[in-house]
Amino acid sequence: MGQRVPRREDAILVQGQGRYTDDLSVERQLFAAFVRSPHAHGDLKAVDTAEARAMKGVVAIYTAADLEGQGYAAIMAPNDLPARDGTAMRKPRRAALAEGRVRFVGDPVAVVVARTADQARNAAEAVRLDIDILPAVIEAEAALKPEAPQLYDDVAGNLILDFHSGDAGKVTAAFAGAAHVARLRIVNNRVVVNPIEPRAAIASFDGKSKRYTLHAPSQGAFGMRNSLAAAMGVKPAAMRLVTGHVGGSFGMKASVFPEYVVLLHAARMLKRPVRWTDQRSESFVSDHHGRDMVFEAELALDARGRFLATRFTGVANMGAYVTPAGPLMATLNIGKNSVGMYRTPLVEVKTRCAVTNTAPIGAYRGAGRPEGNYLMERLIDKAARGMGIDRASLRRRNLVPPARLPWATPVGTVYDSGDFPALFERALEASDWKGYAGRLKTSRKAGLLRGRGIGCYLEVTAPPTNEMGGIHFEPDGSVTIVTGTLDYGQGHWTPFSQLLTSQLGIPFDKIKLVQGDSDRLVAGGGTGGSKSLMASGSAIIEASDLVIEKGKLVAGHVLEADTADIAFAAGRFSVVGTDRAIGIMELAARLRAGTALAPGLPQSLDVDHVFKSAPSAYPNGCHVAEVEIDPETGHVAIARYVMVNDFGTVVNPMIVEGQLHGGVVQGIGQALFERTVYDDSGQLMSGSYMDYALPRAADVPFFTFVSQGVPTLNNRVGAKGCGEAGCAGSLPSVMNAVVDALAPHGVTHLDMPATPQAVWRAIRAGADQIGRGAGPT
């Protein structure tokens, strides 16, 4: 525990021995290619497949008409948030293939199945779609206007949810009595998820057992199996989901996509396996996108700079269909996470969620948590500048002190642990806050603008749900951990092994991990919401306790002692007060060899345990970024980046640090590079890496990483989750630094992404204002 043990899977992956879905090949397999709508909105009059059916190698073509009457369910969001007036959230129905109307470019309309992938793609291009094109609406604010095109007959005004939380009366009174109010209109830009591995699947159907099997990347085999079964209209036992290595997901691969239903249908009808791998150009238009919301954010303060209330009034873009996470991010998660580590007594959130003719919005690293922290941290900087208070001082005077923990927030969360003031001071010290003046002077001599930004954050992780912790002692002398969470890049095998070794003394190199086969699982909440170690770690600890209980019973028999006299430590069962002992691995081996036992004793040490759900945890930290900007080109360079984080108990510091590096870089990508652009007709203009910029190694500095953990009391490990925290800290710290650098030019706010073009224009616009006598505010 606590050691920087190298990831065990890396030796496999760097040698090219990983087994991703597209690496698999099965006998008699066929290949699928999807026909997608080239238009963002239109009535689908006909699908002409005649020419495609006659092409070489084509085995079958299916449209929505072929799926009718098969018992498949619509793909719909399972959650049901209440609207402001108490009515239920509207959840538009999504068929696996478009029925009657297409609603975004990339909407699947048909599938072609052929003997080779090239044959399938060629035939897909020959399918002719007769679509009466309708006007499209791209932005959520525009979609809510009375004159906007309507996507659904049963969703009036394109509004699926009018959400409200908080005490409006008290918040209004707090703002009325405030000495100062900071206001900002903040755009949280849409991003394309861009995992290194595109979506892929191999579907098969066993006619004898009437059972489906889908090999596909996911974020948890158990939950995905259940969702797939529901979509196919069968019981969970009739579905198996198998996930091998996964090349990234960031939330996107957690959902059931319509393509999976279509592939399973084709496999059943053709009595042969059907495989499909998405093309990158298709991924851009058909994967779920992330973020995309606009908020009017407000912070009320008294004369001393103490926070009185926050109010967030926003519009969130759901895309053409509503995903499971879509409505949660801009509603509940904004409220919970905007509080941060501050003593804000009142929070009000008002969000209207709208459908548009764009790709659906789904979970993306943090799923509302970085957004909430970003809104708050930008407001604090705006308030500090408006009140003439140092921004570090303003934060200091509003932090929750450790003596006040547990701290109940106005949004129903309770912080159980942490030392926010100490963490904050350590971040300033690690960033050499006091030495900034010298660096600023150096930058100015070089003709560059320099700025620094603080990004404090506190996240409310997803609560750990029921999670399996299986421990199996195998015939070959190894031990297998069986878990329902799933590693799609995090490196679960190593920290889970570290936990098991610390609990049972099992040799580290003898431990295996099974995680991606739903047939091996009895429960599983999957990986998402930064809860994996909290859930699987707690399950492993509790399962280890059960192994020890069973082991004491068997060891008492083997060592000829009363069970009450058996102790366990460092992997050995011993008789108290004697030198008689037996190791856990030897004891398991004796059981496998058939050692005669008294009636009623366990026949093995194997355990299949289910850890029950636990409360959320609250990872927190402070990130400090410094940027340099070339005023002639608008180019922003990250000059320094320091982060201090509280993740509670850290099992493997190296893996945690790596997770933060990845999250920070993704945050930098959204802040400075990534811009998703649709034209007025709904065509994606940034649909390839020629048009959509991702950060590269040369775009980020070496990071300074400091861990200052206070273990949580909310789970057996004491861990708080770390997978998404990098985004939560980097969005505000980088953008606060950019605005700080531009402040001498009269710039008080800039929306993401701060591309060279956007920065250059802001500098010119700010210089114009100053020239007309309007100085910085």
TrEMBL record:
The reply on keyword Oxidoreductase is yes
UniProt cross-references to Pfam families, sorted A to Z: Ald_Xan_dh_C, MoCoBD_1, MoCoBD_2
Q: Which GO terms describe its molecular function?
A: iron ion binding; oxidoreductase activity
Alphabetized UniProt keyword annotations: Molybdenum, Oxidoreductase
Enumerate the spans annotated as Aldehyde oxidase/xanthine dehydrogenase a/b hammerhead domain: 15-135
Q: Which domain of life is it from?
A: Bacteria
This chain belongs to the protein called Carbon monoxide dehydrogenase
- Protein species of origin: Bosea vaviloviae
